[in-house]
What we know:
Mean pLDDT: 81
Number of domains: 2
Protein name: DoxX family protein
Order of helices and strands: HHHHHHH
Number of helices: 7
Radius of gyration: 37 Å
Organism: Cutibacterium granulosum DSM 20700
Structural class: mainly alpha
Subcellular location: Membrane
Keywords: Membrane, Transmembrane, Transmembrane helix
Number of strands: 0
Helix content: over 70%
Membrane topology: Multi-pass membrane protein
Amino acid sequence: MSIIRGLGRVLFSSYFIVKGSNAALKPNDFVEEAEPVADKLVPMLQRTLPSVGGYIPDDTRTLVRATGAAQAAGGLAMATGLGRRLGASVVATTMVPHVIASIPDKTLPKAERAAGRSVLLRNVSLLGASLMASKDTAGRPGLAWRTANTKHRLESSARDQKASLAANQDKMSRKARKRIAKAEKKARKTAEKMQKKAAARS
């Protein structure tokens, strides 16, 4: 891992560690901001994903605390490099409600809408960056590439073996044909000799 990549990951994850820790330890400070989104998002998730919806808390305070804890844990995973891609995926998931919550209300004054757009842009950027971090393989081939490469090598090896077997079979066939032709030639000569001997006796 390069120093630049490690440093960048630590700097990037620091936002999520601090913000997530604050939300987990002081959820009341974020309840008012999160409540409108939670009121819309939680029922929708419970309807569309009933198997998962049962685990989503209805209480906004608990939801804020859980989201903050997940965000802080994901940030720590990215910063330490232990499960960094999983941590980035967790962070990206926690950023979705933030993006939704930061969409400015059209009824607000122009100045407030402009400020809201700045917050929205920041959250969208953080979401995009965390998605990119979730796919960062630190310069090493990813699992999908390794799987495809292994499949390609196995297929190539199988083709080579098949071609080799076909060549060997063809070589053996040529040898067999030569032996048969040689045996037939010998048989003809023997038959001719026997015919000559029979003719001489008669």
